[in-house]
Design goal:
alpha/beta, two-stranded antiparallel sheet, 16 helices, 18 strands
């Protein structure tokens, strides 16, 4: 994808708008936190933060490599036989879905030397290996998850923050509990909390209770007789990334309810979904976003991507079809359907220069540069710092304007509010 060199986007303009939204606590805000989030946290062998360390939890591609590599030789042989049937670069979730479908479909018959029961056992072993790798705990030091939660709890809000995540780990839960901030995840009870789908569709809890929706399942979820329970353990069960179409009614229940909650959020006026660490490769989630963007012109999504625009093809293709999705990548952005390179303006004050350093890295000699907020660690710090004070009055109009663009992200959102009054 080529970027029109005549069109530029000024990051200052959009970041002052975003800071305004983040600091006020008036907007209905949702976060879609993908697998790239824990990748941004580097730790050493003692789980302490280290710039030279390994990712706290690898991304899906890394997880696929590690999980397959940790299986017994016989299981690896079976998976290697299945891989050619799954297309190019299948990930561990695609592999797991195929194995589960075979376990349900073939019964006592054999495919590649295994019957249905053997494939079911193979799926369980894969889940165990996934659980071992994603069971990492948060480092004790301040980190991106604790900074994000600090921002959530630091403002009086008119609406609760809703977090949607396909991640199986318990990092977000740990961050909330470490900060002593309440959250609701669809489960109720104390001894063996059970999943209550009816409670997901209402907003009866106080707004200080954040909502945490694990839309691909989580460590510690189990089927207990005819209900889904949360055990509090870090063990993986069958309820991590089930095939949404093929599972029985009980197993499918939490996922259908959680995806419906995502649809409801996107259809609610005055809502803004911020995506971080999400690649848009997940077909289930991306189809929900695509549907909402088509059906509701008031739906607003900002996607913060780690790579250059040309590498974020799944996100950019969606943004070019839907002007209410804006993609902020490292080298440029698609905003209201317009592609452009980033080009920062003249800093109006020393204070704004300090804030610019939280989202922008200038190039050598003051030319060029790159946008930093595609990194979950950077955007979490930006969120945490947004509560310092309001800088909108410090930015003259000339300094926040951008060629080829007549509206800011805040302008678009304000239009939604006007349309509802």
């Amino acid at each position: 994808m080529k970027i029109d060199k005549k069109t530029v986007h000024n990051p200052d303009r959009y970041m002052v708008d975003l800071r305004q939204i983040l600091s006020q606590g008036k907007k209905r805000i949702g976060l879609l936190v993908g697998a790239g989030a824990p990748v941004s946290i580097r730790v050493d062998s003692e789980n302490k933060l280290s710039n030279d360390g390994d990712p706290l939890i690898p991304d899906v591609a890394g997880l696929t490599t590690e999980v397959i590599g940790s299986l017994e030789a016989e299981d690896k042989v079976t998976i290697n036989v299945l891989l050619p049937e799954l297309g190019g670069n299948p990930n561990i979730e695609t592999i797991l879905t195929r194995i589960r479908r075979l376990s349900e479909a073939i019964g006592s018959a054999e495919v590649h030397g295994l019957n249905g029961a053997a494939y079911e056992k193979l799926a369980e072993r894969i889940c165990d290996k996934i659980g071992e790798r994603v069971a990492a705990k948060l480092p004790k030091e301040s980190n991106p998850f604790t900074e994000l939660v600090s921002w959530i709890g630091g403002t009086h809000r008119e609406h609760p923050v809703e977090i949607f995540s396909p991640n199986y780990d318990l990092l977000m839960e740990e961050a909330f509990e470490r900060a002593r901030l309440p959250y609701f995840d669809g489960f109720t009870g104390a001894h063996k909390p059970f999943f209550d789908p009816a409670s997901i569709s209402d907003d009866l809890l106080p707004t200080r209770w954040s909502r945490l929706w694990k839309i691909h399942g989580s460590l510690g979820w189990e089927v207990n007789e005819d209900i889904i329970i949360r055990t509090g353990s870090r063990e993986a069960a069958q309820l991590i990334y089930p095939d949404h179409l093929k599972y029985d009614q009980i197993s499918r229940q939490p996922f259908s309810a959680l995806f419906e909650r995502l649809r409801e959020f996107l259809a609610t006026p005055d809502s803004l979904l911020l995506c971080t660490g999400f690649s848009f490769f997940d077909a289930h989630i991306t189809s929900v976003l695509d549907e909402a963007l088509s059906a509701n012109a008031n739906t607003a999504i900002l996607a913060f991507q780690f790579k250059d625009l040309c590498e974020e093809t799944s996100a950019t293709e969606l943004a070019l079809r839907h002007p209410n999705l804006s993609v902020y990548a490292r080298d440029g952005a698609i905003i209201f359907g317009v592609e452009g390179k980033w080009q920062s303006g003249q800093s109006p004050s020393d204070e704004w220069k300090n804030i610019r350093d939280t989202f922008w890295k200038s190039g050598a000699g003051g030319t060029g540069g790159e946008f930093l907020l595609g990194d979950f660690a950077k955007i979490s710090r930006f969120f945490a710092h947004s509560q310092a004070f309001d800088l909108r009055s410090e930015l003259p109009v000339d300094d926040i304007s951008s060629k080829g663009n007549e509206e800011s992200s805040a302008d678009m959102i304000e239009k939604d509010e006007d349309a509802q009054t």
